[in-house]
Specification:
68% of the residues lie in helices and 3% in strands. The protein is an all-alpha fold. The protein has one domain: Hypothetical protein af1432 (Orthogonal Bundle), CATH 1.10.3210. The longest helix has 45 residues. It is globular, with a radius of gyration of 20 Å. Bound molecules: fe (ii) ion (2 copies). One fe (ii) ion binds next to loops.
Amino acid sequence: MKKKKSSQAKGPKLLKSMIRHLEQQGRLGEEKNYIQHGTTTVFAHSVRVASLSLKLAKKLHLRVNRKSLLRGALLHDYFLYDWHEKDRSHRLHGLYHAGTALKNAKKDFHLNKLEENIIARHMFPLNPIFPRYKEAWIVCLADKYCAAEETIRPFLSAGKNLKCGLLSTMKRAGRKKIS
Ligand SMILES: [Fe+2]
Ligand SMILES: [Fe+2]
């Protein structure tokens, strides 16, 4: 029982120390300045993808290189620019940003083959080359899920606010009628 508890604490702890290291040794913190999807920054998106990747590996009982899984996931969108800004170099961002992220990450860190593949192949199938390792497949899937959720979330909360607004207006109108 005790054993299980300590192994559960390992993942988030490892993620935290990895984030700190990549912020101190490189430019991961710069990602806080750029929006990725909806209102989510590239930094928050990358942390979510890393966290979900770890959970997926655990859920599927896959033996993975957790350190590389997290490093690859945290650096998968290390392109370091605001892709919403109109600029010629941001054209076809979807197609080219994995390559830019890999180039930047290699400039700042020593990456192994696994980490390189996670970053380079995370845009499969838009970039039509299959991920080579199970860790790269996991990050690719986690990225799709997080991207969809982050894109939809602002619309869902806008819908919820609209519903609440309408309900309180109707309540107020109902009260006026009665009095
Ligand atoms: Fe990406
Ligand atoms: Fe991403």
